[in-house]
Amino acid sequence: MNEYNLPKQQTSESLVVLLNKTAQQDREAFAMLYHSTHRKLFGIVHRILKHDAKSEEILQEIYLKIWEKSSSYQADVSSPITWMATIARNRTIDEVRKNQLPDSDEEIDFDSIIDDSMAPEDAFAKSKELSKLESCLAELGAPRGEMIKAAYLDGYSRQELSERFNQPLGTIKTWLHRGIKQLQGCMKL
Question: What residues does the RNA polymerase sigma-70 region domain cover (predicted)?
């Protein structure tokens, strides 16, 4: 335990506490938040950029953004790690688009990503959610499920999806919109 009475293995609830303290400009809480989450966020950045030095540079920018935006975090909207991962993913995709970094054809096995900052009960809940997500993606069918994964996990733009799936841009937009709505409905069941 520490001065915030947080467990050594961070839970979603303890990360909320750290984010709230960070919003109050608490540097120690921010350091604990970084220590608890940096491996996960680095993994997200590195899977997209595939370059160690650039990934580390972008990771520092991401944590600066987390420091600056921590007061906008809303626990009732998303988990802390989801909120931070979204910041990481979006910043990294911006970097790819800005510098037109080459994409890799390498497939990423997202199931093998280990979050060692997660408590066992959180890991179990996450694995149940992941199984449900995989099931819901499978219900969407081959091109739409793959398209949503490519867009939201791999960072493909709509134009890139149009080229990859050999479909007009309007069709891609419609499929993504409908697919996300269907996915949200399935996840709520």
Answer: 33-100
